[in-house]
Fold each of these.
Amino acid sequence: MEKTIDESKQGQSLVLDKKEGNTRKLFIESYGCAMNFSDSEIVASILSEQGFNTTQHLEDADLVLVNTCSIRDKAEQTVRKRLEKYNAVKKINPKMKVGVLGCMAERLKTKFLEEEKIVDLVVGPDAYKDLPNLLQEVDEGRDAINVILSKEETYGDIAPVRLNSNGVTAFVSITRGCDNMCTFCVVPFTRGRERSRDPQSIIEEVNDLWRKGYKEITLLGQNVDSYLWYGGGLKKDFEKASDIQKATAVNFAQLLELCAKAQPKMRIRFSTSNPQDMTLDVVETMAKFDNICNYIHLPVQSGSDRILKAMNRQHTREDYFELIDNIKRILPDCAISHDMITGFPTETEEDHQDTLSLMEYVKYDFGYMFAYSERPGTLAERKMEDDVPEDVKKRRLTEIVNLQRQHSQHCTEKFLGQTVEILIEKESKKSSEHWSGRNAQSTVAVFPKEHYKVGDFVKVYVEDCTSATLIGKAVGYSDNN
Ligand code: SAH
Ligand code: F3S
């Protein structure tokens, strides 16, 4: 299945369980990556202590918060359009205050207050604990802003309030920020330097989720394989840590093992892996524990060594193939997905062919594919001309999307005639008579509901498929229930 992300469809308003005594109404919506959705749950938690319950109705809100994405220009345009909508609503509800959170807040800072009259509050991804103070300023009639990036903040001490949850799957954030400095990427500027969260607080969150009936977690970070806990602080300062801190440090493979052992029936996923940081002990840990799902999202961005270098990716095409070969050797049924960018500056037809041939080699289960979008402040923007014409970027994107569709079709067909274990997540979008869930490889399956319910692990016999979905029939509960 190919997945070209349309940011405009990602906005989702979030609803919070009502806390008694709370009288103010918060409307919060999120755009962009899973980390933003996860962060909004932290913000909702902080604000529930400040007298706010959430509402799904924008018109009723005392406070509107939008958690924003800067990854591509289109993502930012989507948020600007939402601000226009808030503007229209403010005419009916003049007391409504509007705040911008997340990556656009961090990137644009005070410019937001200057450019968008509707905005009263600007808060960067590391400053959510300051919201109570900032809101006080807003209540007193002043605009408020905090975009300070932190060396330590991981929000490990805040119990997120699960918003719009299916009660079955949840995100657990384990690292923040990224040190990789890929030349196209705005994330290191908007989310700051990399730091890891205390494993103890991660395990406590996982245990708490299990107690509440959750069956699957996804450990989240920009670069999860780089996870390293040595008592707090930035990853880049690890060298300065004491001997004892170094000796007792916890890396990602160890964290995975801790999670897998803490809840042996909980399905465990993680995202995102970076090829240069992924080590074989992670793959071996996956092999050791049945409850760690055999699925790796392993973005590569390009199949051309020259472009990989210009992107400051710290791996070559050969390194990547070696990693893929090792994954397939250790975990033969592991699904692999990718992120790919077409039309990075100077990309030639030959580079593009290298991307297609890399995809042929790996035969990914699915992928997220994008046309290059120049981002202000990145090294690529400062040093390179965005010289691949838009129509060429689009044509190359179509070619990789089409190739991915063929590979995805091939991958889903492999399940035909097999019985797969599915965790039921929700009703199928296309039919109220069918459930929808995923197998360990993260491929979606739909099947008649019968007597099964959300949260059940079921065995599904696969009778048919599209390039994105397995279609089948439940043949009983799986042993995991
Ligand atoms: N490591 C992160 C990556 C975040 S960005 C993670 O957790 O997934 C997600 C994807 O967006 C990247 O892998 C890349 O393929 C794409 N992307 C990032 N910057 C881009 C840009 N300037 N133009 C087009 N696509 C971009
Ligand atoms: Fe961005 Fe590269 Fe980090 S894509 S989030 S700088 S690994």
Amino acid sequence: MEFINEKYINSLIDDESLKDSDLQFSIIEKARLKMGITLRESAALLNITDSKVLEKLFDAAKSIKENIYGNRLVMFAPLYLTNACVNNCLYCAFRKDNKDLVRRTLSVDEVESEARQLIMDGHKRLLLVCGEHPKKSNLDYVGKAIERIYSIDYNGNNIRRVNVNIAPLSTEDFKRLHSFEIGTYQIFQETYHYETYSKMHPSGPKKDYAFRLHAPERAFEAGIDDLGIGALFGLTDYRFELLAMLMHAEYLEKTIGVGPHTISIPRLEPATNAPAANTPPLAVDDLSFKKMIAILRLAVPYTGIILSTREKPELRRDLFNVGVSQISAGSKASPGGYKSESDNPTNEFGQFQLGDHRSLDEVVKDVCEQGYMPSFCTACYRSGRTGDRFMELAKTGKIGAICTPNAFATFKEYLLDFSSNGYSEKSETELMKQVEKLPEKEKKATIRMIEKLEKGERDVFF
Ligand code: SAM
Ligand code: SF4
């Protein structure tokens, strides 16, 4: 944990020389080269107060995102296996001491039923989530759940990538997790601030800050090379959290040769019997949150930034503009939520309150209207473009030529198969207009894939 240098981070936060607008302007211009910026430069941008400089920052973040990822927004949904948990995180409704929560662990058949529902909504990518419990959510169970999810076929539609957000494992156990053919392994440090971490995690295995912090390296050693990190914003000063998270990203790049594939930016939401969630120690306001995301995009241009349905629709729309590249949609944060929430309106199983309750279909339409292209693509992981191979393609700008046609094809597939809930002529026309604008080679590849899909073929990608 020594690489999270608290003293250095605090010195950057207090450094008066980093408050200069001219300096901030020049850092923003440098960032447009898409080579990233230093920790010190990120700290300077955190000090921006002048609205003109702030607009420049937002504009740079938007153009970097568009330059690397185009107008694509990758869609996914979480699937909760269990809310049983042996930890006592003060911000989470699943905490052991919350006696009001109705505990529920899905059977493998129930997992299938949840995944089926998500497939029928149009999803192709899931994020598997669960509480930490040696009996209720052990690896055997997680493995069986993943195997079942991948086995479902609904008229040629299926879940093609299962990302996982579960408690940290030993290297040996990560090897088993890797054998289940997962996509990204995600783990949020929650707070990088040691003292706050200790306060927030009074009991249970999660008390161990260092075991959690070093989980990505163990996962990598076990063969998992797409790794996601994150912090839970609101537990301590967001400036500290952002700089520490960037330090973590830098450390991973140095030690394992590949930085995080994704960074998640959950903000604390109210949760039943979770004192730290209901009165966040240092809540982050919307503007600071936006500024922080923009800085993240400048600092780690090639890392996916994930925004969840914790945030409300209006804010989500605004944040897509400053560098978000992946979003959850149509989510439920409780085990069994997709099949049974209508029978369970009080959501007595849920982890926290969501801000965006719209269906996938509604989000897709909205995203299109904002000029973004929803993508359901899972091709990279299935074609072996993970870890450093992915980063190499991203950094040399070659990834766009692969991702754009694949994104168009998966969106076309969505429009064809979920026409009762997703089809709109406008989206179809918009899609074709965008295909026309592609460079010749990509255009041809995209049209070929679209033709195959129209003839009934599914899951076409390259
Ligand atoms: N139980 C495992 C763990 O803690 O590592 C798996 C992930 S947990 C179910 C998913 C994430 O939800 C946590 O890492 C935390 O960042 C987030 N979370 C917990 N309580 C939250 C709240 N009140 N508001 C927003 N996010 C919350
Ligand atoms: Fe359990 Fe994870 Fe919630 Fe903590 S955040 S109480 S470990 S489910």
